[in-house]
Structure formats: C-alpha cells, structure tokens
Design a protein that fits this description.
With 239 residues, this protein is α+β, with helices and mostly antiparallel strands. It has two domains: 187 residues, Deoxyuridine triphosphatase (dUTPase) (Deoxyuridine 5'-Triphosphate Nucleotidohydrolase, Chain A, Distorted Sandwich), CATH 2.70.40.10; 36 residues, no CATH class. It contains four helices and 16 strands. It has a five-stranded antiparallel β-sheet, with no helix packed on it. The chain is globular and about 60 Å long. The two termini are 28 Å apart.
Length: 239
Amino acid sequence: MLRSVFKSKEIEFLCAEEDYGLIPAPYPAKKEIPDWFKALPMKLGSGGFSTSTVKRCNPFLDALCVGYIIPLAADVEFVTNEDASGVSFQWKFHKTMVETHGPDQISSDKCPHPSVPKPPMKFLNYWMIKVPPEYSLLFVPPLNRTEKRFTIFSGIVDAPYPEREYINFPFTFEQAGFSGIIPAGTPLAQVIPIRKDALLPKHRSRVFTSKEIVETQRMRNKRDKVHESLYRDNLHKKI
C-alpha cells in the first residue's frame, strides 16, 4: 500500500549547505534545447509540397523536454588512450567527482559487456532528490542529446531512497584519444519521475480487428489529405 500522498506534487533537489550556489543546480530539461534543434527550420522546401523536419515532431520534442537535467558538479579532466581502455582523470573540486569500478562488476568472460575494453566508472552526484512517496525516478542519458564523450547507464530508484542518499551515475568513457576537460554544468543524466503503479502489468500480441483497420486508415487519410499536423495540433498533450 502506498504511503499518504504529498500535498504538493513537486520534486525537490537537496544539497549540502557548503555546495549550495557553488555546484550547478538541476533544471527542467525543457530549459536547455540543443542549438542544432533550435537552428532547424520547421519545413524544407519552398512553394508547392514541403517536408517537415524533426522540429515539428512532438514525440522528439517531448523526449527533450520531459523531466529534469542533473549537471556535472565541477570540471573534470579526462585523458584516454587509443581505444579508451585506459582512462585517467583529475579535478580541483573539494569532493570526489569520479570513482572506478571493476570490469567484473558489469562483464564476464562467458559473455563480455558491450563496453569492453572500456572500464566502468562513476560520476558522483551531490544532489539528493525528494518526490512524493508513490513516485520512482527513472535516470537515463539526456534524451535526444548526443554525447560522444561518455555514456551513463540507466536506472530506476524508488522513493524515499533518493532523498536519503546520493544517486550516482555509472558510465563508460567512449571517446578514444581524448584529452580535455568536461566542464561543470555538462548534462549528465535526465531524471524522469514515474509511477510504477501506473505501469501496465500485462501485455498481449494480436492481429488488427477489421474495425481497427478502418479506424487506422481513416486517421491516415485525415493526416495525409486533410491535416498533416493531426497529431501535433489535435492529439498531442503538452508537457
């Protein structure tokens, strides 16, 4: 049974007093839209028929906007060798920023992890997260934001644990032959509050019914011949 629901449906990010105002704070994902996305026109072609770009794709934009971004707390310098199997790092922050993991924590000789030979590591995060008790937190790499240098692992953590302990981000450094600084504020993870009790526990596979075929074709006809932006203008629910 779920505990009593919070009066306020909000998420809180908590940090130590000595870090407040010093480390970059988490922020809504919709506040940082990639420059390449902003630069895209809505449509390609002039006159006659035109082609929509991904800028008119609400599913893509919703993935960019949902949840919150947790940024890197401080500058970290990385150096990798020719295949990223060797990684060194350092920082000047007053707290640890990166820790290492043993390869056998994610990989075995019987079935190696796809990241081999890149060693698993962990970015340390200094924000605890408080949500209503019926929520869990889904942590993923920032959605639709390509990060070529490193990839964090995804995970789901149930409340109230994230408000009692820091949730850190295991990752592998992907870029071979890298030497440089990942600056403070770099997006590390996108955190999305979800409710496990709202997930659909059952599934099945089947063929379309004749009614569903007619309804699908009717919608396609309406989209293609009458209203190209049918989903965008009539069916989409704004975040």
